[in-house]
Amino acid sequence: MSGPAPAAERAFAVVTYLTANARRSFTLSELSVALGINKASLSAILATLTDGGYLARNSQHRTYSLGPAMIAAGLAAAAHNPVFEVARVEMERLAAATACQCVGSVAIGQEMLILANAGEPTLRLQQMAPGQRVPLTPPYGEVFVAWGSDDEVDEWFGHLDKTDASAHDHLRAVLERVRQRGCAINLLSDHLFAVSRLLVELDAAPHRSDLRSKVSSIIRGLEDDYELLDAQPQDNYRGALIAAPVFGPDGSVIYALTLSGLLNATGRQILDAADMLASTTLYITQQVGGRVPLPETGVVG
Amino acid sequence: MSGPAPAAERAFAVVTYLTANARRSFTLSELSVALGINKASLSAILATLTDGGYLARNSQHRTYSLGPAMIAAGLAAAAHNPVFEVARVEMERLAAATACQCVGSVAIGQEMLILANAGEPTLRLQQMAPGQRVPLTPPYGEVFVAWGSDDEVDEWFGHLDKTDASAHDHLRAVLERVRQRGCAINLLSDHLFAVSRLLVELDAAPHRSDLRSKVSSIIRGLEDDYELLDAQPQDNYRGALIAAPVFGPDGSVIYALTLSGLLNATGRQILDAADMLASTTLYITQQVGGRVPLPETGVVG
DNA sequence: CTCTAGTGTTCGATATACTGAACAATAGGC
DNA sequence: GCCTATTGTTCAGTATATCGAACACTAGAG
Questions:
Q1: When you count CB atoms within 10 A of the terminal residue's CB, does the N or C end of chain B come out lower?
Q2: Which pLDDT value is given to residue B140?
Q3: What's the average model confidence in pLDDT over B230-259?
């Protein structure tokens, strides 16, 4: 749990926690129990961050929240990565054109982080709010690994039962389908909403690895009713999530756009939205000097 | 130099450095010498931040820059402090109306941090760029202390010669003038540009306390040609910086807006711009539920 | 190709930050 | 106003991160 620089790790654990729960402020004690850090140690960390302006302390309520220096750092980070500003404009366009919510996310290790959203959140999914971190485990985050190396795919599989070859084969087929289409299409299901509820709990106590693995296992349980392998144009679907990747100069996925909504839509409507999204991310890829990795078989549509 | 949580402090020293120098990326060794941190220690810190997505590592050039997680944290911080979004709109308005650059800054300890700007930077002053940190020492940052307690003012005086009563009296008179006007008006001078050049050096090596104190002493030397105590409406001035405060609910200065430009302007033009700025910050103060502290002289009860 | 300049990693010895519980100081409830 | 619950600070012992130098490793120049 503790890396080679524990103080730094915990300092940013605080930041991550406050980012995911930006609506309220927290006292030292609250953060101590939520993050599993000794009060004495955390006190020193919080004082350091407050001195630097990265946290703001409300001396009235003795609470901490993210401070102004974090805004400056965020602006500098955004200025350094033009992708996100380019994508923001396109996301607004997509959200307006499809009447869907459009969120942007990045992969960080074995998680994905929601960075931005556009349009009205018709679905109140916890994992769709900016600042949220969602485990990057099957079948979540297909677009982040579909064009990746075998090693990346294996890491994505994670703790899947090694002996369950059929599950692996199924997922590989799904990823192949994602490459062909240029985007991933997933269906809304009750499982998905169950995951959403669990993530709320996980947000409240990120250090609880038992909750974390529970979420991961349930996310894997989504598989059955989650994938849309072949859409029937005239059929009706409950709703859909469509995700497409933006590639960087080295061919890696540096950003992903997800359309969520399309409630009670026909297969044709879903496929049309998917095409629109995929062409938009391709446009963004070109705008930022990105490169789509060549698939082994077939051509990206 | 090292506080009770050195790893956390240094981790954010890296962030601060990358924020101030967002244009390029830096290698481990560069950061090591620039920040005065042991390479071995820094390596652990950078790895931790990179794992969290707060830094992005270019494996090609082995360089580090601010990562996507920092953007999410910045957005969360901005969402938590509505002041900055309210102010941004007004800053754009002011910049357009006065043909000046308008920057927003906050006070963090004994420094002020530039957060946002609007309009074209007619003056290429280093200290006016977002992400920059400028020492909060006389005569800089008058608006941050003019309404503050005596303790805050004394701290602002800093290492001024205690025996030099005339300097203190002069500064107190300046602050009184700022309170009366509702804003601070300062004039461009060669000294100012000299400070700007020194700040570039300081940015390159923030750990050098000798440079830091040198900057502070030169800033104090500005005093003579910096203050505009009484403007002559028909006189011409080389240029001006006008700063006004935004107050929080507790009466403290939570944000400051500075208009820079007004090259070769008359005293009347400068005073008009000052009035416009002061009324705007007052409006923002009210929008965010702020309160202007009552002046200490002539208080009832 | 060889050489150089620079980068990042390894390693044991030392100093230092972390821990945990008891303490003190605040805020909230009636 | 008093009491209670919770907050945040203090302190010494122990575990641990940090330091500095020597080591690999890459990239680029001649």
A1: C
A2: 84
A3: 91
| CB < 8 Å to B106, chain A | 53, 68
Max Cα-Cα span within chain B: 68
A131 CB near a chain B CB, below 8 Å?
yes
Q: A71 and B54: CB-CB below 8 Å?
A: no
In contact, A34 and A207? CB cutoff 8 Å:
yes
pLDDT digit string, tens, across residues B8-25 = 999 999 999 999 999 899
Q: Does B1 touch chain A (CB under 8 A)?
A: no
Residue B131 contacts residue B152 (beta carbons within 8 Å): no
| A133: nearest CA partner in chain B | B69
Backbone angles phi, psi at A160, to 5 degrees: -55, 145
Round to whole Å and give the CA distance between B34 and B26: 10
Q: Do residue A81 and residue B69 have CB atoms under 8 angstroms apart?
A: no
Measured CA to CA, the distance from residue A233 to residue B271 in angstroms comes to: 67
- Provide the strand spans (E) within A83-214: 101-108, 111-118, 133-135, 184-187
User: Residue A289's closest CA among A262, A263, A259, A251?
Assistant: A251
**CB atoms inside a 10 Å sphere around CB A180:** 15
- Asked whether the bond before B82 is cis by omega within 30 degrees of 0, the reply is no
Cross-strand pairs, B103: B117, B258
Residue ranges of domains in chain B, CATH in brackets = 6-71 (1.10.10.10), 81-287 (3.30.450.40)
Cα angle B166-B218-B114, degrees, rounded to a multiple of 5: 110
Q: What is the pLDDT of residues B45-82, one digit of tens each?
A: 999 999 999 999 998 899 999 999 999 999 999 999 99
